[in-house]
From TrEMBL, chains A, B:
Keyword Oxidoreductase: yes
FAD-binding domain: residues covered: 6-364
Phenol hydroxylase-like C-terminal dimerisation domain segment(s): 417-628
Highest taxon above the source species: Eukaryota
Entry GO MF terms: FAD binding; oxidoreductase activity, acting on paired donors, with incorporation or reduction of molecular oxygen, NAD(P)H as one donor, and incorporation of one atom of oxygen
Protein name: FAD-binding domain-containing protein
Species name: Baudoinia panamericana (strain UAMH 10762) (Angels' share fungus)
Family: Belongs to the PheA/TfdB FAD monooxygenase family.
SUPFAM superfamilies for this protein: FAD-linked reductases, C-terminal domain (SSF54373), FAD/NAD(P)-binding domain (SSF51905), Thioredoxin-like (SSF52833)
């Protein structure tokens, strides 16, 4: 019997494995996905979806399903400290969890049981023809290259050992979590940035309390210990309590505590408030050491992501979010290599981009966790400056903890994710050079390469719907070209020349035409010509003034559902006539082109000019990582 | 065998029957619900959800389920007229379907197949223990009063005649649609406001066209006839075409047309644009005469609603929306009578309130339909003034059609629904009199009794969530008391006195305590003390300044989840410090109390003062329709 072949074998159906599976299933890949648990997560585990991750889920069409579970939303974090004289805790301040300086669509953290989040992904994966095989585990693998197209052999088995299966695949991905068989086999080491390990207790349940901030995220320090409060869906609350630290004199990583012990500790910490449990849904004690895998892949065939590559304290709610972004980053890169768009070398950037983010996370976490586990100075020690004055929106004095917290808001919201300059993220050092590239450093655009595009609200021309521009093109594996068209009367020639450049033989756009381009339905909105590019055009004009088929050459007019009027006022740029143009830092008259990677991060920004310059610059940009050489020879036309 | 008894028998599972069933099932009533169709609507029928209805669906927690189907949204309506010289049609202007002068949360019409909307209701009804019995029909009924508690006997049968059942009920409701057995039996006449009848063709399908406004709502007049375009979910479009009118010389109400004939007509009308059908999902031809039932009930036991009571042209998209509001209006009134809160006489107001709205609808429809079916003057006839100038947001000249249309926006959005003064809708003529009642006529509040409360965005204190105040109390059958608390320092005494008045023996509030008040869970948010009242308190203060248990007396602090900070800036009242207070037309310092009926319409507005006055006024207001006498005797305390 011939050995079964798959594009990818994915081990583990937690957040990282599920998101990867969802993307690849949608894009038509053949997936073998196994998980050693018989069913999805029943209780406990991660639960925090950061603002930026909600954008991502919306972009995948999955936000609706998650919000249907009516999750808790955290808009503010409250800080509680001990009062002098044994009077128990008092609130020293609150801070927005995603402050206004961050331009977020959803400025809150969403809290929902991981199992419910998994269900939303699983339903989508099944709709696209992949079924997760449970309870199955990986028993062995070798990237032996015996079959050049399917170089990885993977052995899988039912956890009870009754059945086994050996398959070949182009890729193997481990989303197994902190205890990863694949990582062990690869002998990839975990580096501990912070040598201090902790034992954590975590308890989900329904409580009766007169503690006023029980529906907010709180960090509470008291003379009796520290605790973190996280609200949950269905009237639940999660408490994190630190049970032991490797800095304790009697430290033991196996130290544990019972439900009752943790409840008693919580009662003491919360004084003068009272707390009683009506129901405990889940309780667990586990040791966590901060760690990061030295490598995310050795050969760009066997990859790892999520907790498998980075572990840290659970308090900043980053685990699931970092896992999502690991998976998203890898998904489109594998897709571009396997579909012949990009050179195989781009796969190296998975590790370089994502490991940097994990390192930043761990640095942040070390600071944050250290402060959290230290007893804070009491009100008496700090003095009256620590008491919040009514009417002030922020504490009168920021202690070290709050300073770290504030500085980290951008990071924890997910909007701080910033990839370094590389082949995708244009910089002065990029192989593609042209005076038309705009850059944030030079002040010619606000858009920073390696960061997400600024959100902007616009009016869709064809149906007059008011929409979020950054959400209009779904996560479809395509680069997003945002053609900011400025004033139609000013840019008429530039747009015609841009369109001519796109259709020119050898351009980045025409080199990657769909093979079925002539058979594509007129209902196709995002990829009428190419599976690797979606184009949106935004004019500085009122919606009724824009006649799509009159203003745009055919190649652009074909994106009939992706033409927008930049005519919605925005509080952040109150004086702009064309708010989206202004937010991108582009001329409201002359526009410009913002190229966004399939994952929503800005690749490059180019001036929109008469002649071939704009497309020439884009040809150079894409040629630096596409499989074919681009730019063609004009004379050949 | 004893005859089975029900609180209500509902006949028909279209929008009116389903919404009534949903409310009553949630509030614990025993329902027999039958429908003669074997399954919910498969194709065709109504599809337009107006902005105000979306508010209602959200208030019922059903909007999520409907939006999950990804319906089309209509933000603008385009008008097309003939050009001179046989050049076909051209656009003469567009108009927002819910213009900015209406303060709507969702300023668009939602278009979705009726069957999908029905499914959302049916799932909810089944969750609450009622199952729709299909295909069953009503065979007879008599409101014989043999059983005083269950005065109505109803005979039901399977449509194939094999099975039958006779039951007794407190109420019978017909939501049977235009051909109502109940209405016929009651010999209730239909009055035709407008003697002109029409035959309509309606076609749902997927088209391929270069007509640029195919994703907008359009009214198109051409020399070859008139058509209305309505976008639909799943790339579909609905076309309405008038096939015959009783004003035609060869008028026949049975006149019909084939799919092909309607398609040919559409092709001619749309010239110079082309249109082809890829798929026709549904096509139907039906005669519609404008009509309104003389009575909605004869004895306040057998009621009718929806199409059973009013028929009109389908074009303004009002059918389903009016049906929803019929049902909602009846639901809480039956609930208040049957639960002993209100006097039985309030049931008379169902007909008086809802028939007025239907009459307004028919008046509007007659005007609108007449204009629609008339050929519009061509551009040549009208002159160049009819050509829209680029840059203008509205047509240079409004013809009669557009004038009517604009004037009707408030009405079609659902926000124009205005109930006359009566026992619920306070006025100078109301039996309850006090100098503390505020009124829009006197300019002491902006809130108009019999109209919905103005929407306002506020911050929930307990969890810092930014929320829609008008959505915070769900459709739970309770009156909503919005205590606008002004500045806490100013209103301290008034609020204490208000709370003292509420808890006073004999007050409207304490007279309708829950029988299980001592056993109510601390998790109950909306009805901790009474099933007939939910209270929200809104302070003119920043969220972190509000310590609920310090600022509010116990009775109000118990509504811990319904205390809000009026600290969100609103573009409509840009200079207000407390936007919600300002929008209600209340003093930002001193506040006031807005009493809202269970259906969201304002009942009365009362000044918030020191002493007993505020509650005294409310006691008088509620005493005018509650079952018990209120206000008590202060000396009795």
């Amino acid at each position: 019997m011939a050995i079964e072949r798959y594009d990818i074998v994915i081990v583990g159906a937690g957040p990282v494995g599920l998101l990867l599976s969802t993307c690849l299933a949608r894009w038509g890949y053949k997936i073998k996905h196994v998980d050693m648990r018989p069913v999805p997560t029943i209780t406990g585990r991660a639960d925090g979806i950061q603002p930026r991750s909600l954008d991502l889920l919306e972009n995948m069409g999955l936000k609706h399903g998650i919000m249907a579970y009516d999750p808790a939303k955290v808009y503010e974090v409250a800080f509680w400290d001990p009062q002098s004289g044994g009077k128990g805790i008092h609130r020293t301040g609150t801070w927005p969890s995603c402050p206004k300086f961050i331009d977020a669509r959803y400025p809150f953290t969403t809290l929902l049981h991981q199992g419910l989040i998994e269900r939303v992904f699983i339903a989508d994966i099944e709709q696209h023809g992949t079924k997760i095989q449970r309870p199955w585990e990986i028993k062995g693998f070798s990237s032996d290259g015996v079959d050049k197209e399917y170089p990885v052999e993977v052995s899988l088995a039912h956890v009870n050992g009754d059945e086994q299966e050996t398959v070949r695949a182009k890729y193997l991905f481990s989303g197994e979590g902190a205890r990863s068989f694949v990582r062990e086999q690869l002998k990839v080491k975990i580096t501990h940035k912070d040598p201090i390990a902790h034992v954590w207790g975590v308890m989900d349940g329904v409580v009766k309390t007169n503690f006023p901030d029980i529906k907010m995220k709180c960090t509470i320090h008291s003379d009796a210990g520290s605790i973190m409060v996280i609200p949950r869906e269905a009237n639940m609350v999660r408490l994190y309590i630190q049970i032991a630290s490797s800095t304790d004199p009697d430290w033991h990583p196996r130290k544990t505590a019972t439900t009752e012990q943790v409840q008693e500790a919580a009662k003491k910490i919360l004084k003068p408030y009272t707390i009683e449990w009506e129901r405990v849904e889940w309780f667990s004690v586990y040791p966590i050491g901060q760690g990061i895998a030295d490598r995310y892949t050795l050969d760009e065939r066997v990859f790892m992501g999520g907790d498998c590559c980075h572990t840290h304290s659970p308090k900043a709610g980053q685990g699931m979010n970092t896992a999502f972004l690991d998976a998203q980053n890898l998904a489109w890169k594998i897709h571009h290599v396997e579909s012949g768009f990009a050179d195989r070398s781009i796969l190296k950037s998975y590790e370089s981009e994502r490991k940097l983010i994990a390192e930043n996370l761990l640095n942040f976490d070390a600071q944050y966790a250290k402060l959290f586990s230290q007893r804070q100075p009491s009100a008496g020690e700090v003095g009256s400056a620590n008491i919040q004055t009514a009417g002030e929106q922020q504490p009168a004095e920021d202690n070290e903890f709050m300073k770290t917290f504030k500085a980290s808001c951008e990071f924890t919201s997910g909007y701080g994710v910033a990839y370094n300059e590389n082949i995708f993220n244009w910089s002065q050092n990029h192989p593609a050079q042209s005076p038309l590239f705009l850059s944030e450093k030079q002040g010619t655009t606000t858009q920073r390469t390696g960061r997400i595009m600024t959100p902007a609200t616009v009016t869709r021309v064809c149906d007059a719907n008011v929409v979020f521009l950054e959400q209009e093109i779904p996560l479809n594996g395509s680069y997003r070209l945002y053609l900011f068209g400025g004033k139609p009367s000013v840019t008429k020639n530039a747009i015609n020349d841009f369109a001519a450049g796109l259709t020119q033989k050898g351009s980045f756009y025409s080199s990657y035409k769909r093979p079925d381009v002539d058979a594509v339905s007129h209902l196709e909105k995002h990829n009428p010509h190419s599976l690797f590019f979606s184009i949106a055009t935004i004019f500085n004009a009122h919606r009724p003034e824009i006649e799509i088929r009159e203003l745009l050459p055919e190649v652009l007019a074909r994106y009939f559902d992706h033409v927008y009027a930049d005519d919605i006022w925005d509080q952040r740029v109150p004086n702009a006539k064309a708010a989206a143009h202004a937010k991108m830092g582009l001329s409201e008259d002359e526009g410009g082109v913002v190229v966004v990677r399939p994952d929503g991060y800005v690749g490059c920004v180019v001036k929109l000019v008469d002649g071939s310059g704009t497309v020439d610059a884009l040809n150079k940009y894409f040629a630096s990582f596409t499989a074919k050489s681009l730019g063609g020879n004009r004379a050949q036309l």
